[in-house]
Amino acid sequence: MTQQLLPCVEINPSTTPDACVIWLHGLGDSGHGFAPIVPELKLPESMAVKFLFPHAPERPVTINGGMRMRAWYDIKSLDFESRADLEGVKESAAQVEALIEAQIESGIPSERIVLAGFSQGGVIALHLAPRYARKLAGVIALSTYMCEPSLLGSEAKDTNRETPIMMAHGEQDEVVPVFMGNAAFKTLSESGFNATWQTYTMQHNVCIQELNDISAWLQKVLG
Question: What's the pTM?
Answer without folding.
Answer: 0.96
